């Protein structure tokens, strides 16, 4: 009898509560997990997430991956998908603007901001692949602006994503590197190591766009999540991880 | 030219890596395989299992722990720093060492099988003819196990060419150092340069097929030798 009630309960809620699949840029992992928790509590919808590189998601979406929403690490990929008519028209918006940070796992390494780059007393500087990762491209722009590009070129190592760049630095194989502030930011400050938060004017803004994909077209839960991402409670979380709007 | 200069560079680097790894593994894999083939020691099981580990462990696991071990706080990293050669990640020789671990079973297992097939008898005969064990190994075992050696070398070479996860984890994507073909293809795909990715992948496909064709064309011969 109890079992029957349980079954009835599951089916009755399933009518309104839906499950959606969302592809999320790796740098947005931490805030997204918290946002989804709140979103599910508020709406009853279930959100399944895949975290990874935006370029890979693009290839998967083009080939029919069943994602309802893409939260990209850039604004080019969602625009490209839109031009290829793989999205719900008019659903695209910027959910966060990323902040770049120069970070070292050593708490005493970065004490005077960009000066550490000029001093050049390290073996390896990690960045994400600038060809594919927006944070990597921004890192290159910063080094160009600071005129240390030539000086540091022999010391650059590339991770395939900022997640990997973070691994290179946290394991000590690279003394420092450019990653996303969201990766090391907790409760309003850099949680460990030492860091220089790169001023936004040193690189093009890292606009991260969200878009509803063809698979999630006219899906109520997908629209609800897009709306929720723009709500004040979601933005408060996003801001906590060092993103701007 | 169909392939870009970077692609050609990646191909050259990959072939160099695979060649060096095959050579090193031939030198250290042969005694391991020989020992495994002939011993009754209780360590045979455990060591055989350790040799086979890279077959099962995901490259991401292997790569991550190699990154930690080769780093400044890891035991390999402390050793290399003590020798004043710095740290191994992001270097060609770091890739060589990682690949030696990764491709070890592809050298050892075919050799072990080949040695086991030869059995005791030819060696006993060689001993009665007063051949020293080393002498017997090179004049009797090596010729008899030649197909096994070829299989092992081809598999090791091919497997190293096809390596991706480990390189991605410890390579750092440096041209002429660690950007091998598999990483270059991944980069092309990530950058949405699909035409470049297709061309380089086609080269890989052709190469892999040729290697396997050679290997399987050898098979019947292999069996004949084994039967003798």
Automatic annotation (TrEMBL), chain A:
Family label: Belongs to the bacterial solute-binding protein ModA family.
Signal peptide: 1-17
GO MF: metal ion binding; molybdate ion binding; tungstate binding
InterPro entries: AvModA-like_subst-bd, ModA, ModA/WtpA
Protein name: Molybdate ABC transporter substrate-binding protein
Record note on quaternary structure: The complex is composed of two ATP-binding proteins (ModC), two transmembrane proteins (ModB) and a solute-binding protein (ModA).
Pfam (any one): SBP_bac_11
Gene3D superfamilies cross-referenced by the UniProt entry: Periplasmic binding protein-like II (3.40.190.10)
Keyword Signal: yes
Entry keyword set: Metal-binding, Molybdenum, Signal
BP-aspect Gene Ontology terms: molybdate ion transport
Domain of life, source organism: Bacteria
SUPFAM superfamilies: Periplasmic binding protein-like II (SSF53850)
Residues at which molybdate binds: 54, 162
UniProtKB/TrEMBL annotation, chain B:
InterPro entries found in the cross-reference section: MetI-like, MetI-like_sf, ModB_ABC
A GO term for molecular function: molybdate ion transmembrane transporter activity
Signal peptide residue numbers: none
UniProt keyword Transport present: yes
Main location: membrane
Any one GO cellular component localisation term in the record: plasma membrane
ABC transmembrane type-1 domain ranges (all copies): 11-215
Keywords carried by this UniProt record: Cell inner membrane, Cell membrane, Membrane, Molybdenum, Transmembrane, Transmembrane helix, Transport
Recorded topology in the membrane: Multi-pass membrane protein
TM stretches of this protein: 15-37, 49-70, 82-104, 136-158, 200-218
Protein localization: Cell inner membrane; Cell membrane
SUPFAM superfamilies named in the record: MetI-like
Functional note: Part of the binding-protein-dependent transport system for molybdenum; probably responsible for the translocation of the substrate across the membrane.
Family: Belongs to the binding-protein-dependent transport system permease family. CysTW subfamily.
Protein name: Molybdenum transport system permease
High-level lineage: Bacteria, Pseudomonadati, Pseudomonadota, Gammaproteobacteria, Chromatiales
Gene designation per UniProt: modB
């Amino acid at each position: 009898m109890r079992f029957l009630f349980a079954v009835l309960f599951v089916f009755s809620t399933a009518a309104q509560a839906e499950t959606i699949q969302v592809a999320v840029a790796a740098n947005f992992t931490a805030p997204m997990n918290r946002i989804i928790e709140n979103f599910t509590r508020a709406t009853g919808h279930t959100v399944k997430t895949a975290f990874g590189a935006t370029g890979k998601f693009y290839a998967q979406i083009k080939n029919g991956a069943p994602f309802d929403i893409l939260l990209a690490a850039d604004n080019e990929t969602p625009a490209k998908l839109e031009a290829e008519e793989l999205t719900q028209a008019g659903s695209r918006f910027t959910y966060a603007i990323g902040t770049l940070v120069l970070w070292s796992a050593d708490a005493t390494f970065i004490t005077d901001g960009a000066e550490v780059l000029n001093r050049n007393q390290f073996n390896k500087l990690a960045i994400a692949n600038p060809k594919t990762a927006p944070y990597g491209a921004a890192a290159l722009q910063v080094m160009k602006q600071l005129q240390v590009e030539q000086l540091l070129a022999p010391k650059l190592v590339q991770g395939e994503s900022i997640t990997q760049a973070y691994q290179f630095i946290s394991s000590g194989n690279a003394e420092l590197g450019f990653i996303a502030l969201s990766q090391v930011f907790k409760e309003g400050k850099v949680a460990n190591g030492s860091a220089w938060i790169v001023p936004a004017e040193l690189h093009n803004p890292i606009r991260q766009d969200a878009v509803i994909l063809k698979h999630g077209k006219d899906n109520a839960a997908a629209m609800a999540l897009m709306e929720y991402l723009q709500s004040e409670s979601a933005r408060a979380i996003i801001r906590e991880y060092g993103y701007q709007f | 030219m169909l392939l870009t200069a970077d692609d050609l560079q990646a191909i050259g680097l990959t072939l160099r890596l695979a060649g060096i790894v095959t050579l090193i593994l031939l030198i250290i894999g042969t005694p391991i395989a020989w020992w495994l083939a002939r011993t009754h020691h209780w360590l045979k099981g455990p060591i055989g299992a350790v040799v086979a580990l890279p077959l099962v462990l995901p490259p991401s696991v292997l790569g991550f722990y190699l990154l930690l071990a080769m780093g400044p706080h890891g035991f390999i990293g402390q050793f290399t720093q003590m020798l004043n050669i710095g740290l191994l990640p992001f270097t060609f020789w770091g890739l060589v060492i990682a690949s030696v671990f990764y491709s070890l079973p592809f050298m050892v297992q075919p050799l072990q099988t080949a040695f086991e097939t030869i059995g005791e008898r030819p060696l006993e005969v060689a001993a009665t003819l007063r051949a020293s064990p080393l002498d017997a190994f090179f004049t009797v075992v090596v010729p008899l196990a030649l197909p096994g050696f070829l299989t092992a070398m081809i598999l090791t070479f091919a497997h190293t060419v096809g390596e991706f996860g480990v390189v991605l984890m410890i390579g750092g994507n440096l041209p002429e150092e660690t950007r091998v073909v598999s990483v270059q293809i991944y980069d092309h795909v990530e950058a949405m340069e699909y035409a470049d990715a297709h061309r380089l992948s086609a080269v890989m496909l052709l190469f892999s097929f040729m290697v396997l064709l050679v290997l399987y064309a050898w098979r019947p011969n292999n069996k004949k030798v084994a039967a003798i």
